[in-house]
Amino acid sequence: MAAAYDREDGLAPAPPPHAADAYDPNYVPDSVKTFVVHLYRHIRDKNVYEIHQMYEGGFQRLSDRLFRDAPWPSAEAVAPYCDGDHVFLLLYRELWYRHAHARLSPLTAAHRAESWANYCDLFSVVLHGVVNMQLPNQWLWDMVDEFVYQFQSFCQYRAKLKNKTEDELHQLKQFDKAWNVYGVLNYLQALVEKSMITQILEREKEGLEQFTATDGYDYEGGSNVLKVLGYYSMIGLLRIHCLLGDYHTGLKCLAPIDLNQQGVYTIVIGSHISTIYHYGFANLMMRRYVDATREFNKILLYILKYKQYHQKSPQYDQILKKNEQMYALLAICLSLCPQNKLIDENVSTQLKEKYNDKMTKMQRYDDEAYAAYDELFSYACPKFITPSPPVLDQPLTNYNQDAYRLQLKLFLYEVKQQQLLSGIRSYLKLYSTITIGKLAQYMEVDEATLRSILMTYKHKMHAVDSDGKIVSSADFDFYIVEDVIHVVESKPTKSHGDYFFRQILKFEEMIGELEKVQFD
Fold first, then answer.
1. Longest dimension (CA), the chain
2. pLDDT of amino acid 505
3. Sheet of 433-435, strand order
4. Residue 94: how many other CB atoms lie within 10 Å
5. Tell me: the pLDDT tens digits for 338-378?
6. Whole-structure pTM value
7. Who contacts 406 (Cβ-Cβ below 8 Å, separation ≥6)?
8. Gap between the Cα atoms of 322 and 278, Å rounded
9. Which residues form the PCI domain (predicted)?
């Protein structure tokens, strides 16, 4: 697969067009020479702490100072400063292309294909070679995250055909095998299987293996790269299947990770947020509102408490964006299936500040409510993709929004069905018992229609969980005996832990304010 883009010819990656005149791929500033020498030495020595410092700090600082609008020096130019080490240069190119995707535009199909070829080479070495190194979890997560992002970005780029030039269309034909959906899925699945991470997590539950306890690192002189890449690839597969609209398969891929326990996915905040965002969204689309609400609540409370510690992180803006999107998804969940007993007081306060008006609208059955659901879904959903390549011989149109429109249509169809049932819920919340005849009279329908509505409500408020069991999502239940409806409302259990947690948060805020006063 990578052979079509083999770059053993010694040519440097072509710089993006707008930087071509000023950019010399062979010029290596002294600070970059020093960076490469030290990073290579630390990777050889398996010094994870120093690697992390250089990856998170040094690379970002040099990018901001020297390469804000230009690519880094080519891998061939820095090769003399790392003894021409093949694996190190694959890692360096991975950073090179990631920087190009983040900072430079427009990227051509050729650049995207070169990045795909590099990932193929890098993952092939990990899968089939002997990689004797330890890398920080942050880097390994970013590797998988970027791999999925670049696939998503290429699918979006390829689907915008309307204003493509002849040269761009020629490149799309030339690199038609790049970022093939089967290739992307196969690499991630191969990393999961070759790492045997599913078996490792099973053995860990039985006390026969340590993975989470060591944060995935190998303290016996081995390598963490394959195992941790395999672990994060399960999250990558969840994300891709969400982008494709296959939510059941996505959740199945994530099943080996127990979200009720602390895990390696919680160590890196980007991994933590991405996991819960896509897990919650998949559950929302499968009508498992309770699972989605529970996990959104937990992650939003976590962000509320810890986001201040990530203000200097390169991912801070992304954390804030995903935070806002998850509040929007939580508003949708609670409007479709009220579960206020699952929501922490602090999260509830934030939610009301952001979306109280829209949630009030979404309780109604009119066009305004429908528009509110449309707006929140469009803002908070993933950027869905069409994985198949376009037919370039037909009239050129943009179809990058087709997958999104399909998912929006399916979601709004579900909303419309649920809105028809909103009246029944309002009445049943008022009574502990009521006859079918009386309720039919209130709702201005005949008794046969009411029975049909009640059965539909039962169906819509139940979902099939990950174990295949049918579970209720409603905050109350009802049954009918001799034409009398009996309503059973679940009583929320008091959580003393939440109370203490809220008090701790308040005290931490007070201590922070006092420390500021002292320093002033």
1. 86
2. 73
3. 433-435, 484-489, 476-481
4. 21
5. 887 889 889 999 999 999 999 988 887 778 888 999 999 99
6. 0.85
7. 245, 384
8. 10
9. 295-494
Q: DSSP string covering 350-365, please?
A: HHHHHHHHHHHHHTS-
Give the DSSP per-residue string, 248-262: HHHHHHHTTS-TTS-
Each residue's pLDDT tens digit, 25-46:
889 999 999 999 999 999 999 9
**pLDDT tens digit sequence for 270-298:** 999 999 999 999 999 998 998 999 999 99
Q: Which helix (H) or strand (E) holds 479?
A: strand 476-481
- What tokens does 379 get? 């803002």
376, HSE (Cβ side, Cα atoms, 13 Å): 29
The whole-angstrom separation of Cα 115 and Cα 415 is 41
- In order, the DSSP letters of 372-389 are HHHHHHHHHS------SP
DSSP string spanning 305-373?
HHGGGGTTSTTHHHHHHHHHHHHHHHHHHHHHS--GGGS-HHHHHHHHHHHHHHHHHHTS-SHHHHHHH
Instruction: Please work out, in degrees rounded to the nearest 5, the angle formed at the alpha carbon of residue 350 by the alpha carbons of 287 and 516.
Output: 145
Express each pLDDT in 305-336 by its tens digit. Answer: 888 877 777 788 889 999 999 999 999 999 88
User: Which residues face 488 on adjacent strands?
Assistant: 477
CA distance 231 to 277: 17
d(CA 365, CA 363): 7
Structure tokens at 354: 């952001």
Distance between CA atoms of residues 348 and 2, nearest Å: 50
79-136 pLDDT tens trace: 999 999 999 999 999 999 999 999 887 788 899 999 999 999 999 999 997 888 999 9
Those residues whose C-beta lies under 8 Å from the C-beta of residue 503, and which sit 6 or more positions away, are none
Beta pairing partners, 479? 486
Q: Report whether 176 contacts 389 (CB < 8 A).
A: yes
Amino acid at 333: C
